[in-house]
User: What shape does this take?
Amino acid sequence: MYGLGKLRRCNAEMCCMIGINAFAHLFREPSMSSLTLSRRQLFLGAAGATGAVALNTSTPSLAWAAGRITLGAWTKGMDANPVLLGRLSTELGQALAIASVFRGPGDVWPGPADAKLATGRTLLVSWHLDDQSYGYWASDAARPYLVVVARQVKAYGKPVAIRPWAEMNGDWMPRQPTSSPTDGYPTGYLAFIAAWRAVVNIFRAEGVTNVRWVFNPTTDTYVETTDVRLIWPGRDYVDVLGLDGYNWGTDWRSFENIYATQYARLTALAPDLPLWVCEIGCADPLSSLNTVTAPSGQSKASWWRDMAATAGTMSTLRAVVLFDIAKERDWRAASSRPALTGLKAALVTLREL
Assistant: This one.
């Protein structure tokens, strides 16, 4: 999630039945007319939907009028109890078309729990492979495990969006790629690229066609983080651009302030690719679970409304996935009644985009 210095979430709990003609917009490349918008026209939104994502189809969504931006979520406890994701959907008054999950090294997925979560939804998997070096994942030693997962995904048969090494650019990450020589490569940048391409190539060699690869750094661009332009695997190895970004409330930041720089860098790398916000949240000064303050006239409710106000100008955005838990901050949609009301109002605005 969006880093505050070296503060990093490490949630212990984080360790589709697909509508073939629905939600092609999630993976569809932006039209050329949408790419002519100005740099100011950058930002995000979320929209409910009543199905999941189709691959390799241009059938438009019928969910909302525009059908451009789709909503998803991860919520605490949903792996053990998939009903919780449905409850969040009811709370928001919007369907959740993406089920976000977190899987680690050694996990073989998708499994029965994933299938339940992805009923009527697309599965978005944050695949944490930090137990081994990039050199290991690029080597033949990693092949047996990767082949097992590739075959499992292929057998699953429904679309799966995978974000390997999510937030890899963060300076809090144990395997952050840097300029230092790494695993026999001249730099950590090259080691990361080699590992990414090796994973993708193994899936391709196994004939897995139902995967979309999500290159998913955080929005952080301060000097200690890794510049995403140095670790870009290449257009042939990425299907979706992803971003994680949070307003921690320590230094109250607008949605635009958080997302603008990294969005511009990513879309310059691949202006034809769709972008998903894979994790998003805002601290809540009204929550009793942690202490933050907002400038006069600002609140979590107004932050969501600001997000929605700029969403229509983010031309390549296709999905927004909420991170729904009280942890370092109270990121929950319903952290307070006003926050939930503000988010629901934002979703109504987004519906009209």
